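Input record (one chain):
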Amino acid sequence: MCDKGGFVVGTLQDYPAPLVLTPNAPEFERLVQALKDTDQGGVARTLGVNTVVLRKGHFDLVEGALGEKVECSAPGSWRRCGGQGDLLSGSLGTFLAWELYQQVPRQQTGILAAYAACRLTRELAKRAFEKRGRSMCASDMLLEIHEAFTEIFGQ
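The corresponding structure, as predicted from the sequence alone:
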């Protein structure tokens, strides 16, 4: 089933493995509309037990299908640059792989990985903005990965 924008809900519905979606505000609204009978708080639940939704915004909200919610309100930057979402999804993939490999005991796989990716990406943006201001770009954020990761997560 598709909405007018071509969003394929059927591909995501009851996905058989951990699934983390990272919509921004307009994408999230389209997702809610495509699901028709869900409220904004139930997107992950409606899509299936393996789904986590990381809603990007002024504060990032991570919500799992089993009801767990975590907000990431760590400072970021005043600028969202092209490629920032790619850094978020790349780090999310890494954290999710680590979570699965280490078999972290959690109610729902993906919540911890999504929060860690949000926290890291916000720190990268903050550091890059402090150095470059409004001219920062994603490559400036890349240069901050090692120090930011070490500060937040240790070695």
